[in-house]
Amino acid sequence: MTRVKNSWIARLLTFERRGDVFVAPNPRSGPGERLFGGLIAAQSLAAAGTTADPDKLPQSLHLYFVRGGSYGVEVELHVERTRDGRSFDTRRVTAVQHGKVILEMIASFHRREESAEWQPPVLPAVTFEEAMPKSPNLGFAERFDIRVTPGDDSVFAVPPFWIRTREPIEDDPLIRACMLTFMSDFGPVPVARPPGMPMGPDAGYAASLDHAVWFHRPFDPHQWHRYEVRPLAHGDARGLVAGSLYTTADVLVASTQQEALWRC
C-alpha cells in the first residue's frame, strides 16, 4: 500500500464544495494557452465520484470538450445525480469557466462483481526493452517517466509508449482512476492527424473534441504501463482513434477513444 497524503494530483482534486457544485483549483500556468483536457476530465470524474456510493468505482466516462479552458481561473463543476441504482450510479458533470460551459461529461460508477476475466491475446506494439526515455513537450510531462519508440523524434510522445508516475500517489481507487483519465489524454491527438501530415507544432490546428474511457481493472500508477493508440478513421477534418492501456504482463487495464479536429 502506498501511504502518501496530498500528492500533486490529489491537490488538484481537492475542491471547495457548495452542495453538488465543486470549485476546482487550477495551476496559474501550463503548457500552451488552453487548459490541458486531461486535467479538467480528471477533475470532473473526481467531482462525480465524490457524490457516488463509495463502494461503486468508475466504470466509464464519456465527455465533450465544448470550449478551451484557461489556466489560473477556477472551474465550477456542476454534478447532476442522474441515477442511483443497486449496482450502478450515473452522474452528469458540466464544467463552467468564465460563465461558459467548457466540458460536458457522463460518468458511470459500478459496484464490483465476481465474473469471468477475459481479454484477447495481444503482442506489444513496443517492448519496454526497446523503448527509449524521453521528456516530451506535454502538459505536466515532468510528473511522469515516459519511454517511446526509438523512431519518435517529435516534440510530443506518440503512442505506443510506456508511462508511470515519478511521485507517490494515494492508494485510493477514485484518485487513481482520475490519474488514469489524466494520462489517457496524452497521445491520441497526434495519432488522429490526417495521413501524410507532418508531425510538429506548425503542422496545423488540432484540438480534442470528445473522449471516452472504460475502466476494466485496478490501476497502479507507480507501475509501468504501455499505452497503445491506433487510428480508426479520418474525414471531415476529424480523426478517430482507439487506445488500450496495458500492464507489463499485457493485462488490459483500460480502453479509450477520442476524436480530434485537425485543420491544415
TrEMBL record:
A Pfam short name: 4HBT_3C
Occurrences of domain Acyl-CoA thioesterase-like N-terminal HotDog (ranges): 30-110
CDD domains: Thioesterase_II_repeat1 (cd03444), Thioesterase_II_repeat2 (cd03445)
Keyword entries, A-Z: Hydrolase
Residue ranges constituting the Acyl-CoA thioesterase-like C-terminal domain according to the UniProt record: 132-261
Keyword Protease applies: no
Single GO BP term: acyl-CoA metabolic process
GO molecular function ontology, one term from the record: fatty acyl-CoA hydrolase activity
InterPro entries with a match to the protein in the record: ACOT8-like_C, Acyl-CoA_hotdog, Acyl_CoA_thio, HotDog_dom_sf, TesB_ACOT8-like_N
Family indicated by similarity: Belongs to the C/M/P thioester hydrolase family.
Official protein name in the record: Acyl-CoA thioesterase II
Organism: Mycolicibacterium grossiae
